[in-house]
Structures are given as structure tokens and as C-alpha cells.
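Researcher: Let's do a round of design. I'm pasting the C-alpha cells now; please hold your answer until I've finished.
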């Protein structure tokens, strides 16, 4: 009798396990299309129930509500990097998680293809008429503060070829970017505060040694393009007229979305 019962019990257990597995919820995977605005918005983390610490984010339109712009964190779409001022239309994989982790979203997204990428805002934006010199810039509370860093030296030869301070060749003039690096240590007492919108470097005030005009450019996601900080006519003048080993120092003042100053940084262009 025991010999008969043991296999029978095992079969019943296996059958019940199979039934349970079939009843377990599964992730739903689908391809969807997403519109992304050139403008950014504001969102909050789960723990910020009182909405005291706004965070800059993307604005998207999803298939379930195609007429409403909804917030989505930068970097939430795997494989996609957002640039401010660009309007996108994407094909993505959306996974609806059957068992999402606590205090997180029930969706994940990964890029299939960028169907459209259109620049709808020029890199240079109007400067407040009261800002005519570096001393006119009003700073955000607690600033200036050493939070960001940039490449301090760009070498250029007579052919207009750029290289960095370590001698490595940079991309072409039209493709090189002035990368803004966040160097604030995580153990700094201001670190959490400085991750919020008022302390994000959205713009750069540009002060050139070749003109008295103050310009304001967008930094995009990683920093401003070199060509927007050093316009083509200035760059051509440097390549043509600067003598060997001569230098020009540029100053940029990083500013937040409200155009309030955050930090002053310098970089030098040296003729080889």
C-alpha cells in the first residue's frame, strides 16, 4: 500500500505545483510609441510625500492617455538619452511588471528605435537685459558652490583640429562637447539638496575674451556643445590669428532653469 501511495502523492504534488505556476501572474511585454516633449517638467520621488523636493524630468505622452503630458524620469527608458530642446517620437518596449518591487513603478521601458528627433529650440536663448557682465548674475541660494567641473584646456592647431589637455584628439569642432561633470562627493552635507532642480546646470552664461556680448546657451544633458560656447566666427578667428602658444581664457557661469547662477568655471584655448 505504501509503495502505491508514495508515487500517487508525488504525482498529485507535481500536478498542484503546475497548476499554481500557471496561475502566477506574468509580466506583460508590448511595443508602444511614445512622444517626448522638448520642454521638461517636474516630478517627485516616492519618499517625498509632501512634494518639497522637485526633480526635473521628461514630459511624455503614452498610449493609455495620448492627450496628456506625463512626467517620466531621465534615464527611465533604457538605451535612450534625452537632450533638452529636442522633441522625440520613440518606439519602445514597455514591460508591465506582474510583481513590481515596493515603492517603484510597475513599468519598465527599453528603446527599440528613435523614429523622430527634432530640435525645436535654438541652443542660445535670450539673456536678461540686466545681465551685461559677470557681476550682474544673481546666484541661487547656497551658491556659488564647487559642484561641477569641466575640461580646463583645449589645444587647437592651424588646421582647426582640437585636442584635450592630455594630448588626446577631440572630436571635430562641430561634434565636440564641453562635458559638465558632477564632482560633489556623496558624503557632502549638501549632496541631497544639490540633486534637485534649483541646483541642476541647465544653462551656461558665456563670457568670451573676443566680445563684450553675454550669451546664454543650453547645456543639454551632458553639457553644452563647444560650437555653441565658441561660435564658428570666433573659432575661425582663433585658428587663423592666434600665434603659437598664445592662449584665450573663456568663462562660463553655470545657471539653473531659473537662470540663477550656480558656479563659475574657466577653460583655456591654446594654439599649438
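Researcher: That's everything. Go ahead.
Model: Designed sequence:
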Amino acid at each position: 500500500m505504501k509503495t502505491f501511495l508514495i508515487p500517487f502523492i508525488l504525482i498529485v504534488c507535481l500536478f498542484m505545483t503546475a497548476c499554481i505556476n500557471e496561475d502566477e501572474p506574468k509580466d506583460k511585454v508590448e511595443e508602444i510609441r511614445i512622444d517626448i516633449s522638448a520642454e521638461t517638467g517636474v516630478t517627485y520621488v516616492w519618499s517625498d510625500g509632501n512634494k518639497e523636493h522637485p526633480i526635473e524630468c521628461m514630459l511624455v505622452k503614452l498610449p493609455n492617455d495620448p492627450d496628456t503630458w506625463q512626467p517620466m524620469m531621465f534615464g527611465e527608458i533604457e538605451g535612450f538619452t534625452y537632450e533638452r530642446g529636442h522633441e522625440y517620437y520613440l518606439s519602445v518596449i514597455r514591460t508591465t511588471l506582474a510583481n513590481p518591487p515596493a515603492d517603484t513603478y510597475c513599468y519598465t521601458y527599453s528603446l527599440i528605435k528613435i523614429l523622430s528627433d527634432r530640435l525645436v529650440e535654438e541652443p542660445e536663448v535670450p539673456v536678461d537685459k540686466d545681465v551685461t557682465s559677470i557681476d550682474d548674475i544673481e546666484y541661487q541660494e547656497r551658491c556659488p558652490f564647487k559642484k561641477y567641473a569641466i575640461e580646463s584646456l583645449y589645444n587647437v592647431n592651424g588646421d582647426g583640429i582640437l585636442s584635450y589637455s592630455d594630448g588626446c584628439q577631440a572630436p571635430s569642432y562641430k561634434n565636440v562637447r564641453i562635458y559638465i561633470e558632477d564632482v560633489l562627493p556623496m558624503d557632502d552635507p549638501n549632496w541631497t539638496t544639490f540633486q534637485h532642480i534649483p541646483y541642476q546646470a541647465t544653462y551656461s552664461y558665456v563670457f568670451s575674451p573676443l566680445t563684450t556680448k553675454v550669451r546664454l546657451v543650453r547645456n543639454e544633458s551632458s553639457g553644452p556643445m563647444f560650437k555653441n560656447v565658441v561660435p564658428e566666427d570666433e573659432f575661425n578667428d582663433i585658428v587663423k590669428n592666434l600665434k603659437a602658444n598664445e592662449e584665450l581664457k573663456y568663462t562660463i557661469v553655470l545657471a539653473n532653469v531659473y537662470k540663477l547662477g550656480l558656479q563659475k568655471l574657466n577653460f583655456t584655448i591654446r594654439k599649438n
